[in-house]
Fold this protein.
Amino acid sequence: MQSLLTSPTTPFLLPLALHNLHSQPLQRLHSNHIAHRKLKLIPQNEIHARTRLFNLYLQMHVNAGAMQEARQLFDEMPERSLVSWTIVMSGYARHGPTSAVLMMFWDMLCGSEGGLLRPDSFVFAVVLRACGMVESLSYGRVVHGLVLKQSCVVDSFLENALVSMYASCGALEDAAVVFSVIDKPDLVAWSSILSGYVKNGFEGEGLSIFCDMILRGIRPDAFAFSMVLGACTNLECWDFGTQVHCYIVKIGFDSCLYLENSLMDFYAKCGDLEGMSQVYAHMSEKNLISWNTFINGYVHNFHYREALRIFHILMAEVSKCDDFSLISILKAVTGLGYLDHGKEIHGYILRAGIETNRHLVSSLLDMYIGCMDHESLYPRDEVPLKLLNYLEGGKYDEFIITSLLKWSSLESNLENGKMLHALIIKLDLKSDSYVLSSLIDMYSKCGIWEAAKRVFTRVEQPDTAPWSALISGHSWNGCFTEALRLFRKMQFDCVEANEFTFTSVILACLALENLRKGRELHCKILRSGYESNVSVVNALINLYSELWPHTQALKLCTLIPDSEISWNFLIQACLGAEDYEIIHKILWRIQVSRGNLNPFSACDIFASCASPVLLNAGTQAHAYMTKRGLISHPTISDSLIQMYSACGRIDEAVQSFNMMPEKDIFSWTSILSARVLHGHPSEALHLISQMRWNCSLADQSTFSCILNSCAQMGLVDEAFQLFFSMKEAYGIEPLEEHYSCIIEVLGRAGMFEEVLEFINGVPTFKLGPLIWRTLLSCSRIHGNMKVAKYAAEKVLELEPSDFSANRLLEQVLLTSGEWDDALKLKTKNKSTKASSSCIEIRNKIYEFRSDENPAKEVSAKLAEIEGKMEELGYVADKNHLLHNAEEEEYDGVGLHHTEMKALAFGLTLLPPGMPVRVVKNVRMCGDCHSACKFMSTFLERELVVKDPYSFHHFRDGKCSCRDAW
């Protein structure tokens, strides 16, 4: 080539710029350097040689991407061949602008060379691909017609271009017709038709085409595999995608970086984070796209902390990221509410000099809006001044305006919203669906209904987003019936609902307690393909938990990963149904998946463990809440006190109280109740002094605890002083509960005449069953038959079905010789259910019923205990006749009641010295109470029995209830 350029026999001079380009191929060419020598006559062969040389340099320009210089050289060519046109057009097709290909093709047909140049298959193919790129179907059809008219030789290159053009323009039927007449379609043809179906939303058909392609023996390339993986991703077709992955490995494409990134995206979109991690771990090479895909996979699946961890590794190992990395991680920071992390990322954006990227500005704005405290006095101060200056500079687009409208909605800032509305009109964004939906949402959240409706009515053919915003606004403001009506109208208008629409309508059904509409909506959700959408499923779980048995809601938990389930509603429903076993299973699932758990759900979990037989579950829950960092919440501390108190572990309850950094009235009331429940009245009164010292005001519950403490200690005068000070000093009106406390104070002291006199002074509307049950309990303690009969009759007047009062009245009538009346009551009470006691051993609960015979080892242990008691000279206490009223009658003697069976079972299996804890469903009888006190003298362990009325801690021959239960 060099010799040709310098040969003296060359009949014309080449431009100087071409010599420079030959020595430096990437140097820019300037047309003003071209000088032509006047030639009288140039032979034809030399003209062709010169054209070929020009074509060579045209190709060099095109390869370098210098299309402007290539076009200048092309325009100054004295003669252009078909190759010259083809080189420049193919260059425009590769480097753009693509529309220039179509204009050049028209010039070639109609220009000076139009009569001499005849496009070949390669030119047609280039033009057809350009038509596909600009999606100009009409131009493509014209070119197709020219191909047929000129009887051009149709080779595989042209056939593939026709398929690609029709597929890219969405004319899939035409693409299929062209494809069907290809004799032996090659990989390019198959890839073109596959790409067309996938890109036009026919992913299922695309997968079928891929299967046909494999059956025909066509070996896919990386592009075909990427299209198939994209189809599997859109369809969330995990099974098919994993098979494709296996095939990729089988034919040796598993080391292709492009495919590895596509595989990671596929697994992430299908929710298989383990599969995504495995692909990432086996990658021999990673680029920034790999890191971005990996991070975005965790963000997409709401694993924000893991995404943040990977981002830190990226910055440590690679030390750089791009706007895609930053947008993903800003979304994770927003989800976590980590404002400080967001500010650090904002600082990096400023240092990197990319703060003018509008997508980043929009993401930053979303981050500040999502993380800021909107209830603070000056929320605007939490947005950095530089970001606000950028916005005040007028650099707005639809994304930024949407974020600002969201900000105005959260702050109910109508003035800002109105200014943004004016800006939308000024920037002519009135046709943007998402901008208008944000505007409707803003007016709805600000309570300006007419403006929201007016914006909606001015939308021509509103699609899903405006409808969703309008329905959501109605639900937000409590207009639930109107929200359902709008949803029905949306369906009549054939507008498809999305997840935001469905969640708003589900909220309306829940508020209206309309289960029937909710179930109909569930059917619609199934037909629409949203049955596994996280937001929709969580809303349905909330609906069914509130309005249907919680077992129905539990069935929905298989549709989405455990880590994405909002367990709060389901835990509340299980707690209301007293299904504590399900709650403990849910806690295990939360632990395994590290699922969502807030402090209020933690309180419900502790409440489900509030029983001596569930102590192990409670301590495990306590350890897990500590690990999750939830234990410092004041509400959880109160729940801990109540749980340990209900489990019979008063020391742990006191420890939880002492560890609280700040104590409110609920905390003081919880520990006071615990002390009173476990028979520690003196400690309770000491706590009251501490509470006063800490300036905590007493409430109604506090006074109940104080009065109960006075009753246990026999402080009659002090109790009356406190009772009268409630209204005079604290302005608290005494309730029935407080009147019953005074009755207990007097009754425990044996002052029954004063009790009856006090009851006569109680307002009639406060003389409820609680008053008479308290009197009945006091008469039971002292064995006062007359008062017991009177109190039992009063209870039965108000609640005839009260089992305990019926049985006790029967005992009183038998003792007083009223046999006929006692027989009537006995006949009436025969249908009562059997009593039972429960004990927990090694995380398993065992129940012992009165109508079942114990196992041999339990009977043997009971016989052993009885023998030991007789040997030590035990004599049963027969002074508790009225305490035996709720137990079944037995013909035999000995330790026959259910709590004794449970205690014997515990003594058989539990290690020596470990306390035995039993829960009984009826009041403990006097015989068993006396026996347990005696047993505690030689068993060398604490015995704890919880009945519906009191805790009984048996130690060293004494009970914590002081024989008053």
Remarks:
- Confidence is low (pLDDT under 50) at residues 1-42.
- The longest helix spans residues 44-63.
- Residues 187 and 217 are 10 Å apart (CA to CA).
